[in-house]
Amino acid sequence: MHHNGVEDEEKWLAAGITGLQQNAFFMHRALDSNNLKDALKYSAQMLSELRTSRLSPQKYYELYMRAFDELRKLEIFFKEETKRGCSIVELYELVQHAGNILPRLYLLCTVGSVYIKSKEAPAKDILKDLVEMCRGIQHPLRGLFLRSYLSQVSRDKLPDLGSEYEGDAETVSDAVEFVLQNFTEMNKLWVRMQHQGPAREKEKREKERSELRDLVGKNLHVLSQIEGVDLDMYRETVLTRVLEQVVNCKDEIAQCYLMDCIIQVFPDEYHLQTLETLLGAFPQLQPSVDIKTVLSRLMDRLSNYAASSAEVLPEFFQVEAFVKLSNAIGKVIEAQDDMPVIGVVTLYSSLLTFTLQVHPDRLDFVDQILGACVTKLSGKGKLEDSKSRKQVVALLSAPLQKYNDIDIALKLSNYPHVMEYLDNGTKKEMASVIIQSIMKNKTLISNSEKVEALFELIKGLIKDLEGNLQSELDEEDFHEEQNSVARLIQMLHNDDPEEMLKIICTVKKHILAGGPKRLPFTVPPLIFNALKLIRRLQNRDENVAEEDTPATPKKIFQILNQIIEALSSVPVPEVAMRLYLQCAEAADDSDLEPVAYEFFTQAYLLYEEEISDSKAQVTAIHLIIGTLQRMHVFGVENRDTLTHKATGYSAKLLKKPDQCRAVYACSHLFWVDDQDSIKDGERVLLCLKRALRIANAAQQMANATRGSGGSVTLFIEILNKYLYFFEKGVTQITVASVQSLIELITNEMQGENATPDPTADAFFASTLRFIQFQKDKGGAVGEKYEAIKV
């Protein structure tokens, strides 16, 4: 059925074009032979094709454009006729004898255009005559195109200021009156289209009307181009009359389009000066009009105007733009009870953008907008609609982008209340935006109240929210989120130790409530931030009595112990052990032996009870040995206990090479350069001999299992340790012991079961080169090495 309708329409259009072209052909013949009578006769017949009611607006437009092209040629002919002595007044009378009203009016407009140009009568009189006579066509489609033609031919002939058609003092008023009258009539015709035809075709009619809207809107564009329309005339005549028409037509499509047109075509400064009048029209529009979009566009235009130059800002203050816009939004939302949440948030979002541009110093305005938004959202629960959530994120992000300072957002009391309406996923998104802002601007959060407020805002990232199943989140995304929280913790700082301690306690409270999965990410940065504070306290004036200040290393270490203990629930023993060792080292620098010993004890317990993987054990034992070697605070008894434990752990590692390396590393625990109390050559030698025995056992094992000797790398490593302690002056390491080890390695490498090992060969050769280099140095060092034969 519909298909046939389209086919029929094509046929009717083709027939219309054919009729038009045939009559145009005869009209051209008449024009060529200067036959005015025939030219008018055929042009009227040609224009009769526009009387059809069978075409859709789109097809009718095709036909109209062909007629329009022919009328331009006719207009040129009329101009030439007047030059040849034909009276334009007579011609104006003559075309009025055309038999049919539509062709007659098209011809009248065409001659009228020439009549104005001739200046034989005032432009205003001819225009008034034409606009009145066009009332004769009341069919919406035909009337719209006829008046569009009138607008087209007259736009460059309006009696405007500075125009060649300028008349008396009232000239601009006449031009404005003509355009306004044509606009009003066109709008009435356009609105009437909505009420023609059966109800079932409502959608089709709305689509057709939408295609025609620019014909009506062009009038407003013409108005905006009239030079003589100053602010006073715009305020008193143009805007009042246009708004009156918009409100009175009571048509949703027309109101929405025309309000948008007004905002787009007239200058920003006019909008600003007539804000009250313009805003007053909004509550009078039909409830179905998409006011939020139109009003948002107005605010966006005003925001851009404010951004264009600082010089225009006083105008905004003078007209109290913020108050007017804020009140208007309140009224619009009140008038439209069923306005969806997205509409409410969009309006407040645009108002916020406007405020940040015009009143960046008025935080009370910003908070007022957020408060109004909270009021409108109350009782709505969490936002279900993704577009609304996106808009709220935009609303909350705007102050961050404007001020580049989270401090400002933290001063806004309603900021967290707006966030409450977001679902858990969007809260996390918003928390990420906040953290990115802090990182980008390197903002230091410097007191515990702000930290408390900030962590309340980003709680979506630091703890599981109700109904938020962790499994839903991709592991990689989770890691990225937690790493961003870790970076944030590093940005918290205050030079005052007491305040910094409060910050640490606030963060501790939040992260310990965040659930075990987050702790491995959030605990380490907090520990290191606290250790930074301890280092600062170590450098502080020693005379400050510890009892008087709450921030003492001892008190901070107690807090650190509690924080690391929380990691046991995860469990991540390797991370916890590293942190205990870091704290032990800091306690060593603070001369707190009992504290350092306690941290070491905790590290040892973790090693014994939790770390079972052989690779992890190797890494852990080397960390323990390295940290213990750097400790200065321990008395003989405590150090012996810890050292004995470390050597015991080393000998119990699973693989022989690992055992060997850990045992020879322990030798450093008995000889520390800058501590005279720790220089025990006997025990150094004991460790190295023990390492040799283990290396030997490893060699035999390789022999037994593979039938060939294992690598001699372990022996070469031990030789290097011998040389290290030999050079340090450990008397127990003699030339003979070094010599015998060199010979042992040489024999092993040349033995029958030796496995070729280029790496070991290079390592050994390099070691021998070092000995030779030391010999060649001469002096005390050369003398020392002289006896070693290589």
Protein model, in words:
By secondary structure, the protein is an all-alpha fold. Among the domains are: 1-120; 122-265. Helix content is 73%, strand content 0%. The chain is built from 38 helices and no strands. It has helices spanning 2-32, 36-48, 57-83, 88-94, 101-118, 123-133, 140-154, 171-192, 202-225, 231-249, 252-265, 268-273, 275-281, 291-308, 313-318, 321-335, 341-358, 363-377, 386-403, 406-411, 415-419, 424-440, 448-457, 459-462, 475-490, 497-512, 519-538, 553-566, 573-589, 593-609, 614-629, 636-651, 656-666, 681-706, 713-728, 735-750, 758-777, 779-786. Helix 5 packs antiparallel against helix 6 and helix 17 (341-358) packs antiparallel against helix 18. The radius of gyration is 46 Å and the shape is elongated. The mean pLDDT is 89.
Count of individual beta strands: 0
Counted by DSSP, the helix tally is: 38
Assign an overall shape.
elongated
* Uncertain regions spanning at least 5 consecutive residues: none
Going by helix content, strand content and strand pairing, the class is: mainly alpha
Residues in helices, as a percent range = over 70%
